[in-house]
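Milestone 3.1: sequence recovery, worked example.
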């Protein structure tokens, strides 16, 4: 007939455990593994084709990135900026008014 109530400490700990689980699901971890320079170069090569001429690690708008210089099949040299965590290409300003990339030391 009567259900026995659990002590308050057990109920609160259960509530906090569920809330913690929900927070973990709502906000996935932001700390992903950083791509290595060879992974970034391979990604550019597979996406654009051609031959990678050089790669440089830098900081752009408070983000770690790679500057990859590639010789395209059309025999043009292009510089591609790659986000070091997502692997996505970043757009750079061509007019020179943006922040200048800083080399990581």
């Amino acid at each position: 007939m009567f259900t026995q109530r659990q002590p308050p400490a057990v109920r609160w700990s259960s509530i906090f455990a569920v809330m913690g689980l929900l927070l973990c699901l709502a906000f996935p971890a932001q700390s992903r593994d950083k791509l290595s320079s060879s992974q970034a170069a391979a990604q550019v090569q597979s996406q654009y084709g051609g031959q990678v001429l050089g790669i440089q690690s830098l900081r752009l708008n408070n983000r770690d990135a790679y500057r990859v210089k590639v010789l395209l099949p059309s025999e043009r040299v292009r510089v591609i900026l790659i986000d070091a965590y997502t692997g996505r290409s970043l757009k750079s300003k061509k007019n020179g008014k943006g922040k200048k990339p800083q080399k990581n030391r």
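Confidence is low (pLDDT under 50) at residues 92-99. Residues 28 and 94 are 34 Å apart (CA to CA).
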